[in-house]
Every structure is written in structure tokens, then in C-alpha cells.
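Q:
Just now I want nothing more than another pair of eyes on a protein record. Here is the record:
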Amino acid sequence: GTVISPAHPLRIMLIGDSVMHDLSYAITAAFSATGEATVSSKSIDGFGLTTAKNWPTSFPTLVRQVHPQIIIASWSWDEYGPTTPNALHQPVAYTALLRRAVNALLTRGNGVDGVIFTQFPLSGTIPAANAAGQASYNKERLEGLKAWNGIAEKMTSYFPGRVMYLPVASSL
């Protein structure tokens, strides 16, 4: 119901891992250039729902501190093993976990109007710890990223009108 203006800017919070941290500079610059938005980056290197197990309490705390209307999110650390659940090997369990996280972000009365998941970029070859396993490592990593992106996109059907998915990976 609020009209966005310089006096009442749109409040955006970013959550995610190191890639979201890197993206935060461009996202902040783009929204700040409007003169009608503020951006708070709360990204953490290595963030994932299975790596930062305190998210059930930290998400509500961050929302109370920042008072965002929109949350933009993306991370890759839940893509595949050894964490459980993960998007590739336990997609049903990971979908349930991500739904819990979105519910925590969209708690009634907390002021958050929506969550936007940005597609996680599909990177090229990354050196593996064991050169002999590099091909299989990168294949599984790519499959895991595709699985995470698919589950994040599926959140739009669980939270219609409240969650968006932006397929931006090819432009990054």
C-alpha cells in the first residue's frame, strides 16, 4: 500500500553466498540509481540452508533489523553432497527445507511483500582437489546447480504472487 518515492524508498535485502555478495554491488548500484530504493546486503560466503543452520532464527532477526519489503536471494551451497538435504540427491527433502525458509521470510506481519530468487549462474570448469576426479566433480556440480535452480523456480508455484524467479544466469 505504500507509494515508493525518495521519501519512502523500497527496502530490499539481499541474502545468499559469495556470488550474491559479488552481485550485490551491481544490484545496489542499479536500485540506488532510481533514488527510490535502498539495498542492504546480508550475504555470507559459503551460505546455504544446510551450511548456516541458524537461518531459522537469523532470517527473522535480519528482517526485524532491515525491515525489507523485498528479499532477493540466491546461493549454491545446497546443490549436492555431502550436505543433507541437498537439491541434487534429496530434491524432495530440499524442496521442503526451502519452503520452510521462504515461509520464515514471508511471515505474516513482518513487512516482507515478496522474495525474488535469482537463478544461480552456471559456471565453467572449476579445478577439483583431485585432478583425476575433475570431470566427475564438475559434472555433478553442474547437475546440482541445475537442480537448485529448478527447486528455487518451483517456489513460485508454492507462493504465487509472493515469490518470483528471475532466470538471469546467462547474463552473468
Notes: The chain has a mean pLDDT of 92. The radius of gyration is 16 Å.
